[in-house]
Amino acid sequence: MTGATKHQTMGIVLSRPYSSVISTLNGKRTMSTSSKPVPVRVYLNPDKEKELIVNENKGRTGIYRWVHIASGKSYIGSSVKLNVRFKQYFNYNHISYPKRNLYIYKALLKYGYADFKLEILEYCTRDNVIEREQFYFDTCIPEYNILKVAGSPIGYRHSEAAKKLISIAAKNREVSESTRDLKRKALLGKSFDRERIEKMRLSNTLRKSVLVTNTETGENLEFDSMTEAGKYLGMSRVSVNKYLLKNIPYKKYTISVKRPSLTDKEIIEVDSPYNNTKLSQKPVLLTNKETGVIKEFSSMTEAAKYLDISRARLWYFFSKTVKSGNETIKGYTISKIAYSQKEVNKKAKKIEVTNIYTNEVTIYPSLTLAAEALGVLRSSLSGYFAKKRTNAFRKKYILKLV
User: b or e along 335-369 (b: 16 or more beta carbons within 10 Å of the residue's beta carbon)?
Assistant: First the structure.
């Protein structure tokens, strides 16, 4: 007779929560302990029993295991609210979210719930749930678990994108004075080698490279930090920062921040339309390489729409070919219009005004003169053309740029 008596109904297997075996030999009862854990609940078809699984485990704490029926691979987890956890498993949007990079999620999406069975290994209390989960980790050695220590991130590897987000959050984190004091006390008495000190110095985000200029001789001295500059000038770092902020000389020296020189790559990044919106709105020219026809656009965005490509692709092409100017994209070369050239083009535009009642046509050399002749503000005419209106202006005039 086995101590793990089972009863199977509706695909659910109920068993007693122990794994010992009791047998009768020569009229005597003996008991042996099995190393294989016996679950207290087994759901053979989670795909059809989702509602039952959630309802039966409402408000309960315990250890569960997903087992892939064909391969025998398993995943062990725990929760203080099993019903909430199972709702997450049965939520497609939850398990398919790209940032939730769990092997068990990928396996459920690949094979489907019907290829798995769900076991409740044990119901327990909140106090010992981590301890019991670790016991089953050590006993079953689940293949789908990334972490091998219960309640610990040991063994998990963050993606590069996640590392950057963690770094940004850490830099913006506010630390209380009590926490700072604890950190200071922990570092007291510790000694670091030169390599470690150099790394700490270079990673200091508050460090500023300082340029000290002798006003009498014109000699420039560069220092990697305000502390080093202060040692040379015989003052504290705070005093160096004060003279730097107020932009006043100290004796015969002037103190300024050293500006790093930009590489070609950094210049392209600074000029990127994502870093400077104004640059991407500057007018550009597209020249057809074969016919020589030139088309003018008020922004990089409009030029990209004309070529039926993304603005980012056009900007990348422009930044790579700005020096040579020989390469083409869809048969066109691209160039910027200088501000002064654009202003000349604006001034050179003429306005044709037609009186719809008398059919009298008058051409004015500028918007300003046309506005004065019609007795309206220049902004009224600018707005008319900006909105691309085709109806008669003031119900009397047909306006056209020539």
Answer: eebeeeeeeeeeeeeebebbeeeeeeeeebebbee
CA distances 5 to 2, 13, 20, 346, Å, are: 6, 10, 11, 92
CATH class of 1-155: alpha beta
- List, in sequence order, every residue forming a beta bridge with 22; answer none if it has no partner: 31
The winner for highest mean pLDDT among 105-119, 221-235, 382-396 is 105-119
Do the domains spanning 1-155 and 264-343 agree at the CATH topology level? no
Q: What fold, for 264-343?
A: Arc Repressor Mutant, subunit A (1.10.10)
DSSP state of 89: H
Q: pLDDT of 296-343, one tens digit each?
A: 787 778 888 887 777 777 777 776 665 455 567 777 887 776 544 444
Domain boundaries, the chain: 1-155, 210-257, 264-343, 349-401
Cα dihedral 389, 391, 395, 401 in deg (nearest 10): 60
Structure tokens at 371: 């506005």
